[in-house]
Amino acid sequence: MRDGFVKVAAVTPKIKVADPHYNAEKIMQGIDAAAASGAKVIVFPELVISGYTCGDLLLQHTLIDECKAELKAIAEYTADLDVLVFVGLPYHFRDKLYSVAAAVHRGLCLGMVPKTYIPNYSEFYEARYFSPGNAAVLTTDFFGTGIPFGTHIIFENGESLPDLRIACEICEDAWVSAPPSIVHAMAGANVIVNLSASDELIGKASYRRQLIGSASGARVAAYIYTSAGEGESSQDLVFGGHDIIAENGTILAESKLFSEGVITADIDVDRLLSERRRRNTFTENVYDDYVRIPFLINECVVDIKREIAPLPFVPASDSERRTRCEDIANIQSIGLAKRLEHASLHNATIGLSGGLDSTLALLVTVRAFDRLGIDRAGIYAVTMPGFGTTDRTYDNAVKLAKSLGCTLLEVDIKKSVTQHMEDIGADINEHDVTYENAQARERTQILMDIANKKGGLVIGTGDMSELALGWATYNGDHMSMYGVNAGVPKTLVRHLVDYYASEAEAKGDKVLADTLRDVLDTPVSPELLPPKDGKISQKTEDIVGPYELHDFFLYYLLRFGFSPGKIYRLAKIAHAGTYDPEMILKWMKTFYRRFFSQQFKRSCLPDGPKVGTVAVSPRGDLRMPSDASASLWLKEIDELG
Q1: Catalytic residue flag (residue 115)
Q2: Does 171 participate in catalysis according to the annotation?
Q3: What is the DSSP letter of 199?
Q4: What is the CATH number that goes with domain 2-295?
Q5: What is the tens place of the pLDDT at every residue in 421-471?
Q6: Is the whole-model pTM more than 0.70?
């Protein structure tokens, strides 16, 4: 499968109890419908060929033999289909009856997995009919062909997606304290299929959803759960056909209760493998008693239907976004408070430009001071107008400091930078990198010296996106004594400032709220070049590219280790209608080039709190050599174009 995606399906047909031939026809129709949607792995409910609610009819040879015959017919039906299908049936083996999941593929029955845990409580009387399966994989005769029979079986795909490894459990197996899926995952399975017949009770669907989602997360696996539906007998129970497809803790697809039909989802096997690799506590391949049965699904391009968020760091819903902002605000402020408390400091110095990053850093510092009960006057907000400072950002910086009760200091850097440029023989009229960086370094020197004079910390303002791109002046704004924004991507900085603005509005602080709203409306800029007609002339995103693209690239590069080709494919889907493929490719090349070449700046970052699953600290998440070559990644990007 291209880029590690495989489409899977859960199917609940409307069957007739104790009518295997009718049910087999419905199963075949379900296979056709799922295959037509592109599904390659198709899962049906427990005992779907006979019906789960057959009662003592399960002891009848006539029913058992017919189910076996219909399984053969279903297997033969798949002869010309590019699918792997799991169906449930009662199966007689060595004088015992088992509830099994049979895997059929290209005209053959590949193997049978019996149910491990047989419930015999409340409404369940399965021990009256069925015996529990065990780990020992034996051989059963299926119309003259010996096939594996046992719980320790993993079905492994061939060359098209060699890392696709599927194991089975059945209904109750998922509800016990030590589900078989635990051992399956530890043996290497990354997709668990569960053929179920779970009756509906008040509140059970919610618990079932939570159970399956949590199981997929704990196993770092995909989970395809299919349950019996309305065709079952309603003598004492009602079955809702509740089908669920989950991946590593996230529900990808779910059927409505009391419905029949097909649900599909795109499972990202690469993502699962990446997550398992990075979790060194995930124990895998420790069981060598598994029988591994090969199957082959031809390579194809999966038409990805899953939602791909254009802003992966930013929750889509208002409530989730607010919760995340609250959590991050606490992490940032608690981290800084701990540092201040440890050093017995009551002062902090921060360069306040009136832009997004320094505004957020100031808000975090205020929150930390309030947490410690320190007077906000100990926060020295230093505005340092230079050649590119506009009235808008200057005015906002002044308003912020005053409305928050901080001590405002103003140090104009134009004179000192002009002198410095003269001292080193540089032309002040040549607006090159020296001209820009001299201003950044002068500001850092001022902040450090004020911090020494006042006895406090210099609070860093740069965010994680800037650090990823190296968009910081080395030993300039790159340096501080504690970088509160170091773990926050640029796309999330904006929402955090908006969160603080909403807080100010709720408290009736109109001046602060209005100022924060104006900061949000101000273009992102380092303001190092002279303004044009009083307005910002240097817009960061015009130079390095859109941060929403760079954050997208950063997320999938560091969180999952995806290749440029896969990230490009996801970006085209996520940003369709906003950026055309050529634009995405252009800025992707910029991202990779800068990400590799600027590692030396990240190798000596100041301390700062990690807030999410992606971080660039050399002491934590990103141990990368500063002189690593980007040629392999850039070559792949060139080939994409």
Answers
A1: yes
A2: yes
A3: B
A4: 3.60.110.10
A5: 999 999 999 999 999 999 999 999 999 999 999 999 999 999 999 999 999
A6: yes
